Amino acid sequence: MFPIEKYHFASSVGDAVQALAADEKAKIIAGGTDVLVRLHGGNSDYDRLVDINGLSELKEIKIDGEGNILIGSLATFTEIMEHEVVKKHLPVIAESLATIGGPQVRNSGTMGGNICNGAVSADSACAALIHEFDLLIEGLEGERTESINGFHTGPGRTILQKGDLLKYFCVRPENYKGFSASYYKYAMRGAMDIATIGCGAAVKMNGDVIETLKLAFTVAAPTPIRCKNAEKAMENKTITEETLQTMADALEEDVKPRDSWRASKDFRLHLIRTLAKKVTQQAVDNQGGTH
Ligand SMILES: Cc1cc2nc3c(=O)[nH]c(=O)nc-3n(C[C@H](O)[C@H](O)[C@H](O)COP(=O)(O)OP(=O)(O)OC[C@H]3O[C@@H](n4cnc5c(N)ncnc54)[C@H](O)[C@@H]3O)c2cc1C
């Protein structure tokens, strides 16, 4: 059994925020695919839990009257991947989530947990960055909106404060309409493996010219990142061997890969340059289809 010291089943968003604020050590549990693994591993930082699984409104996925797409923080990976709104307007999210773990993890893990645990390898992070997610957060001061840009502050760290509960991801129309995108996860195994490098790209085309490129990586720096220098290098260009090379050179200003047991710094840099070209090309090719 899990060594849980204290457990509170939240009856509302407000109740969850109060329970978190009232207990210095309390942590939210959503799908539990990180929390229970850490608890099982003897990490007592996770033995006082506030369970949000009763907050069914946080499972909603919808488009509101202004065309904003809202994805509840408690929706599981499978629920998000299979939702018509996501498949039609944000297919790169479904593509990214399909790379996570295996069916059991996808049936219980949430995108809220994937972003809030601050993991530098989170497979939903690139899609969140290239579609400029807004995060609707309930805290002790009420509701506020934070951008995904700057949300991660270091490995396993985010801007979330004590008492904060992420409620929804919001994607504004200008951040998905007219874009096509693609995601590629390089990992040692084809499934049940954490990314060595993840790369996501979104493009808005004007004929053969890339009007806008949004390029993001995981495990290419201490946090998931957008690559502004590489994006600038490709704007208003057509795809040629030369322009892709110039983009890959500019990319070296954006990234800060490191050595780890999964890969050396040099191999990661090689992957980063190669995937940036491959995924940008795929995002452009996807413009041709329904993506
Ligand atoms: C076998 C296995 C394979 C995996 N493979 C992958 C993989 O390939 N790629 C990948 O990216 N991840 C992978 N993971 C990690 C994990 O599945 C994800 O990180 C998942 O998204 C965590 O979501 P959860 O709902 O289970 O979170 P939980 O474990 O419930 O919570 C995770 C963290 O987020 C916080 N949190 C959760 N919801 C909220 C909220 N709404 N507001 C504020 N804070 C919140 C919790 O307090 C906790 O700190 C794997 C895990 C396992 C066990």
Write the layout of secondary structure elements.
Layout: E1 6-9, H1 13-22, E2 27-29, H2 35-40, E3 48-51, E4 61-63, E5 69-72, H3 77-81, H4 84-89, H5 91-97, H6 103-108, H7 111-116, H8 125-130, E6 134-139, E7 142-147, E8 152-154, E9 157-158, E10 165-171, E11 180-186, E12 197-206, E13 209-218, E14 225-226, H9 228-234, E15 237-238, H10 241-251, H11 265-287
Parallel strand pairs: 1-3, 2-3
Antiparallel strand pairs: 4-5, 5-10, 6-7, 6-10, 8-9, 11-12, 12-13, 13-14, 13-15
Helix pairs in contact: 9-10, 10-11
The structure holds flavin-adenine dinucleotide.
Flavin-adenine dinucleotide (FAD) is lined by residues 27-35, 37, 73, 100-101, 105, 109-110, 112-114, 116-117, 119, 121-123, 165-166, 192, 194.
Q: Could you explain the architecture of this structure?
A:
The chain is α+β, with helices and mostly antiparallel strands and 291 residues long. It folds into 3 domains: 46 residues, Uridine Diphospho-n-acetylenolpyruvylglucosamine Reductase, domain 2 (2-Layer Sandwich), CATH 3.30.43; 120 residues, 2-Layer Sandwich (Uridine Diphospho-n-acetylenolpyruvylglucosamine Reductase, domain 3); 107 residues, CO dehydrogenase flavoprotein, C-terminal domain (Enolase-like, domain 1). 32% of the residues lie in helices and 25% in strands. The protein has 11 helices and 15 strands. A 5-stranded antiparallel β-sheet has the order 4-5-10-6-7, covered by helices on one side. Strand 2, helix 2 and strand 3 form a beta-alpha-beta unit. The structure holds flavin-adenine dinucleotide. Flavin-adenine dinucleotide (FAD) binds next to strand 2, helix 2, helix 7 and strand 10.
